[in-house]
Amino acid sequence: MTVRNEILIPLLVRATVAAAPLLLGRHLLSLAARSGSIGELLGGISLAVLPALIVAPPIARIFGNYAGGIYFPGSDDHPPPPAYGRARALRMQGLHLEALEEYRKQLALHPHEFDAYLEMLTIALDELADRALASRIVAEAVSAIDNRAQIATLRRRLAEAPETHS
Q1: Which residues in 68-85 are b (16+ Cβ under 10 Å) and which e?
Q2: 32 three-state secondary structure
Q3: Which runs of consecutive H residues, i.e. helices, occur in the chain?
Q4: Are residues 150 and 98 in the same domain?
Q5: What is the pTM of this model?
Q6: Nearest-CA neighbor of 92 among 130, 137, 122, 135?
Q7: Which site among 29, 66, 133, 135 is 20 to 30 Å from 58 CA-CA?
């Protein structure tokens, strides 16, 4: 549900309900000011505080969602960005097949990520000199990525790679 349905509509309903005690409390306070009656004063104060108690839960929820969303993002938020640090570290250590597996794990979470395909293609061509693997990576990317410019970049990278004879 949206913030409008979950919070704002109940807030408007509660504010409408709270209007009557607020007005009655204000009236009792003005009577108490004229007559000095302690009963009217206490009744006016009670009725003036009641609307705040009626309206407080949705307002607290607005602030709670904002503050809680910083530390505990809800399902409505975007997923966290892909984490390529481990894959890049493995690549720098010369563990190229392990790095490819890490990129595949990220692609399982973010199947349309161009950067992962480009990094995998670079590993296949530059580190492993495996043109067949590189071709499979490009084919996977073509089926997953919608951006034509990114697909063209991957195809161009594959076409520019020197032929290897294994």
Answers
A1: eeeeeeeeeeeeeebebe
A2: helix
A3: 3, 9-35, 38-71, 85-92, 96-109, 114-122, 131-144, 148-160
A4: yes
A5: 0.55
A6: 122
A7: 29
Are 61 and 96 in the same domain?
A: no
Collapsed DSSP state (helix, strand, coil) of residue 1: coil
CATH number at 151 reads: 1.25.40.10
> d(Cα 14, Cα 53) in Å, to the nearest integer?
10
90 with 120, same domain: the answer is yes
* pLDDT, mean of residues 79-94: 90
Cβ–Cβ < 8 Å for 116, 139: no
Domain boundary among 16, 38, 71: 71
Q: How many of the other CB atoms lie within 10 Å of CB of 43?
A: 18
Q: Tally the domains of the chain.
A: 2
Least confidently predicted of 13-17, 72-76, 91-95, 146-150: 72-76
